[in-house]
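BUG: 3D viewer hangs when loading the predicted structure for this chain

Environment: internal workstation, default settings.
Expected: structure renders.
Actual: progress bar stalls at 90%.

Input used:
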Amino acid sequence: MTTALLLLILASLWFGFYQLFKQQGRILLRLDRLEHAPHPAHAHRESSDEPAEAAGLPLQSDFPPFSFPDLSGRSVSLAEWRGRRVLLLHWNFECGFCDSIAPQLARLEAAFAKRNAQLLLLAQGEARPNLEGAAEHGLKCPILLMTGREEAGAFQQEGTPVAYLLDEQGRVAAPVARGAERVLALALELAGPQAEVVDPSPQASHSSALPAGPPAPEIRPPHRLRLPRFLLAHEIGLGDVIKRLTSALGIKPCVGCERRAGALNRWLVLSGIGGTGLKAGTRAPVFELPDLEGRMVSLEQYRGRRVLLLFSEPQCGPCDELCPHLVHLHRERAGDGLGVIMVGRGSVEENRRKAQQHGMEFPVLLQDKKWKVSKEYDILATPAAFLISADGMITKDAAVGRDDIMALVSDGQS
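Structure tokens produced before the viewer hung:
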């Protein structure tokens, strides 16, 4: 692996993580604000000495009227749902507690409709991230955008998620529900006894009024970010990555760190790709790629001949050192049935210039930007080579570097 390629990969990883934390990392700040807020914004109380929660709006009182834009910009008022019960949620897709119950709420929407009830989210932020959050979790309910705390009305001093259940006349029909567990419990009661019961955590418990029977969780799989295996040889959650980094920096864990790490682990898992290559005895994955003139060349065209398959890159120094040897090898061994195929990264111009510089007469094929063929052969290093038999089997383990590749060819002569 050349220094240039390594720097390119590290730069790409840095940019990717920058975008990742820019878009999603604010969850940690949000959780910090909720945890250290002077009011009890959620149900996770650390000590019995904390002051009692605020009572919320009185039962049977009229919920304060409001009018907010929906995700299309149309102004929508609470009065539009008069005649239906409404589960009204103060919501933020960047809130870890909201994120933990969003899939369950999405699955309850059909049950709400059968019972003349409507899920309605009063959300923070801009339209696009809310559209993306709703699509990710399968939420189809209306989402109204509150532009500031001063417009939040009854939710002005509340965190997220917080819910009120309103009756058909827009009056408060149940005590305010704060925190993920209480909000989900209220939603389950509204959905009725035939609704699917999904427990968001092993420790969560619901009142006896909720449907009995074993939970039937449907866990959303985490997002996966695949990295070169020389950087990461196993799977690890994002939360565990942050824990290791903070520990290495000497930062002491906070009270809620384990909970947050668990939430991040459920959201994103890092895993390795691009190892040491497919092993001897493995059938070589077939492929079809364009050459420098745009003609499609397939590995199947070489069936019946042995093939030296080489992965290269125009900016790779060791690849340059190997090229004269490959040109000489191709000229000497073409008569005995050995074919040479180079799979290159980069643009047509870069690879054509390299081929002309070294006088390559064997096919130079262009790999797509996602390096699909390299991934199929489980190798990202360059130069790397495989010796493939006439019947399409890999005869030796992958060779990486000029000397190992030439040794691979020499061993293949016997």
